[in-house]
């Protein structure tokens, strides 16, 4: 199946259904993070779009800017992976809010890395649970892997590594707490076979 054929099958109703899945996952993730930190955290999904796999690197405006990326593999009835991408400054701000410590300068500290990994794990798990409810299957996330580096190379390498479908889902994600708004991008890259199953489930 060509990318053009796949894109043509993702019409407004299918995108609305995927947006609803993303919103449900965000709500569950916000609840889990709030319970973990005993602080009110909201996660909003202002936009969901379709991207060619080779275009994921353009999700950030500056290919040379430093970003932090959390990769989680999905196993079970659907396979593939998710990527959660933050600008480095945003990742440090979010980690500081979650750990109640002032963010430092430079690279992420081990504590900050752990906090962002947990955010990636919670968001991926919540989204996969919502997706599994939609398809009627079982999905399991693997332990998250965190990387940091220049946006263009890092995102491109992660997106193209291993099997995957074309196009992919790119979900703008805002983490809102203590009057702070940290913006990230959550990317869902199912395998070709898994995308077919999702499309079959989206016959709305």
Written description of the protein model:
The chain has 204 residues and is of the alpha+beta class. It has one domain: CheC-like (Chemotaxis protein chec, 3-Layer(aba) Sandwich), CATH 3.40.1550.10. Helix content is 44%, strand content 29%. The chain has 6 helices and 7 strands; from the N terminus they run ααβββααββαββα. The chain has helices at 3-8, 12-37, 88-99, 110-135, 151-160, 192-201; strands at residues 42-51, 66-76, 80-87, 139-141, 145-150, 168-177, 180-190. Strands 1, 2, 3, 4, 5, 6 and 7 form a 7-stranded antiparallel beta sheet that branches. A hairpin with a 2-residue loop joins strand 6 and strand 7. Helix 2 packs across helix 4. The radius of gyration is 16 Å and the shape is globular. Mean pLDDT is 87; it is low at 1-8.
How would you summarize the topology of this molecule?
Layout: H1 3-8, H2 12-37, E1 42-51, E2 66-76, E3 80-87, H3 88-99, H4 110-135, E4 139-141, E5 145-150, H5 151-160, E6 168-177, E7 180-190, H6 192-201
Antiparallel strand pairs: 1-6, 2-3, 2-4, 2-5, 3-7, 6-7
* Second-tier CATH architecture: 3-Layer(aba) Sandwich
Terminus-to-terminus distance: 21 Å
Main pleated-sheet profile: 7 strands, antiparallel
Helix-and-strand structural type: alpha+beta
How large is the radius of gyration?
16 Å
Total beta strand runs? 7
CATH class: Alpha Beta
- Share of helical residues: 40-55%
According to CATH, the fold-level topology is Chemotaxis protein chec
Number of helices: 6
Oligomer: single chain
- Uncertain stretches: 1-8
Q: How much beta, percentage-wise?
A: 25-35%
Q: Indicate the overall shape.
A: globular
Query: What number of domains?
Result: 1
Averaging pLDDT over every residue, what do you get? 87
Provide the succession of SSEs.
HHEEEHHEEHEEH
CATH superfamily: CheC-like
């Amino acid at each position: 199946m060509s990318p053009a054929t796949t894109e043509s099958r993702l019409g407004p109703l299918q995108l609305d259904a995927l947006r609803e899945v993303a919103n449900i996952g965000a709500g569950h993730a916000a609840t889990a993070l709030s319970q973990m930190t005993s602080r009110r955290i909201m996660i909003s999904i202002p936009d969901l779009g379709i991207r060619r796999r080779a275009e994921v690197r353009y999700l950030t405006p500056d290919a040379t800017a430093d970003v932090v990326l959390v990769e989680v593999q999905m196993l079970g009835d659907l396979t593939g992976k998710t990527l959660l991408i933050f600008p480095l400054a945003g990742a440090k701000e979010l980690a500081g809010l979650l750990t109640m410590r002032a963010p430092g300068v430079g690279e992420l500290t081990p504590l900050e890395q752990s906090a962002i990994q947990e955010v990636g794990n919670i968001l991926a798990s919540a989204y996969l649970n919502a997706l599994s409810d939609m398809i009627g299957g079982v999905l399991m996330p693997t332990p998250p892997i965190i990387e940091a580096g220049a946006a263009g190379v890092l995102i491109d390498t992660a997106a193209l590594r291993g099997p995957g479908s074309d196009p992919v889902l790119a979900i703008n994600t805002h983490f809102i707490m203590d009057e702070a708004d940290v913006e990230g991008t959550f990317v869902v890259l199912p395998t070709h076979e898994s995308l077919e199953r999702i499309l079959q489930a989206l016959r709305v």
